[in-house]
Amino acid sequence: MRRAWWWMVAVLLLALLLVPAGCQKAVPQQEESDQPPPTPAAVQVFAANCAGCHGDQGQGGRGPAIKPSQLSEQELFTVIADGRGDMPAFRGRLAESEVQALISFLRGE
Predict the structure, then answer these.
(1) Mean pLDDT within 100-106
(2) Does the N-terminal peptide bond of residue 38 adopt cis geometry, omega within 30 degrees of 0?
(3) CB of 22 within 8 A of CB of 84?
(4) What angle do CA 84, 88, 91 make, to 5 degrees?
(5) What pLDDT does residue 108 have?
(6) Quick one: average pLDDT of 49-76?
(7) Cα Rg, the chain, nearest whole Å
């Protein structure tokens, strides 16, 4: 009888220790990005030249969603420089450094 009583006390204590641990609310962990934030120049160039059609964050609007882009760097350069479909060409309107900043911004780099 005495042994059964100690056994019940041990099980009860164990349960009291484990229940609070299992009841804690899970806190979602934020994903750490290993990519730096976009440069202010890229954001400004995007806002001035792209956001009107592609949305403030590249999510789409009159034009398609473009961020994050699955196109290669060369494909993006060609589309930005020469246009595609209803999209105008920006060759001569944007400096090459601005196009490169846009490419990094669109690829999430």
Answers:
(1) 91
(2) no
(3) no
(4) 100
(5) 84
(6) 92
(7) 28
